[in-house]
Automatic annotation (TrEMBL):
InterPro entries: CbiM/NikMN (IPR002751)
Membrane topology reported for the UniProt record: Multi-pass membrane protein
Superkingdom as given in the UniProt entry: Bacteria
Matches recorded under Pfam families: CbiM (PF01891)
Protein species of origin: Rubidibacter lacunae KORDI 51-2
Chief place of localization: membrane
The name this protein goes by in its record: ABC-type Co2+ transport system, permease component
Subcellular location(s) of the protein: Cell membrane
Gene3D superfamilies named among the record's database cross-references: 1.10.1760.20
GO biological process terms, semicolon-separated: transition metal ion transport
Keywords: Cell membrane, Membrane, Transmembrane, Transmembrane helix, Transport
Cross-referenced NCBIfam families: PRK06265.2-1
Listed transmembrane segments: 44-61, 68-93, 105-126, 138-164, 176-202
GO CC terms: plasma membrane
Length: 217
């Protein structure tokens, strides 16, 4: 799902950096105004490392393979920390493994980070933070994880479809996008199941990690 260098026009890449800059400022402001702003830093660091490593673990689904994105899981567990955590994870994926490009880092961060924040809001809405019940929270985790990946995939396909040069073979372009859409359609429930399992596990061993203490006034 990482958009590489050279695929997008400069105006789109610049717009991606503008959106990512604005969203990062907004999230850091919300974190600063929230209760215990430094409390989640160790957890955010750990999950950022997990987000970084997840891109290296490929699951074979013939004729290709997929890797977990985990942006929904980041939103559910980190709240407003998720967006800057995605930015840091994608930066290291880019410079160390060339997953994506530096010119498209802003676009890639917005593409994965904004759905992470929406997953955070959806999880809180469905689970109702004041009275989280195990089954309800697990179901909320599934939908948050699934829909975050689906939204990121929809943004990716729309960007590629809207910006590919006209000289590229249209049939090949449609075939590639259909293949990508099918792959992401398979991956979305996998991401949802992983997020639901993590929510269920945290509820048993460390339920306070699911508490929402990052929202600002």
């Amino acid at each position: 799902m990482h958009v590489p260098d050279g695929l997008l026009p400069p105006s789109t890449a610049i717009a991606g950096y503008a959106i990512t800059g604005g969203m990062t400022w907004y999230c850091l402001r919300k974190i600063e105004r929230g209760n215990y702003p430094s409390e989640k830093i160790p957890k955010a660091s750990l999950l950022t490392a997990g987000f970084f490593v997840a891109s290296l673990i490929h699951i074979p689904i013939p004729p290709a393979s997929i890797h977990l994105v985990l942006n929904g899981m980041m939103g559910v567990t980190l709240g407003y920390f998720a967006f800057p955590a995605v930015l840091v994870g994608l930066f290291f994926q880019t410079v160390l493994f060339q997953h994506g490009g530096l010119s498209t880092l802003g676009v890639n961060t917005a593409m994965m980070g904004i759905p992470a924040l929406l997953a955070y809001g959806l999880f809180r809405l469905l689970a109702r933070r004041s009275c989280i019940r195990p089954a309800r929270a697990i179901a909320a985790g599934f939908w948050a994880g699934s829909l975050a990946l689906a939204l990121s995939a929809a943004i990716f396909c729309t960007l590629v479809l809207a910006t590919l040069p006209a000289e590229i073979d249209a049939q090949a372009e449609r075939t590639a996008l259909w293949a990508a859409a099918i792959g992401y359609g398979i991956q979305a429930p996998i991401e949802g199941a992983f997020t639901a399992m993590l929510v269920g596990f945290l509820q048993r061993v460390k339920p306070e990690l699911l508490e929402d203490r990052s929202a600002g006034a």
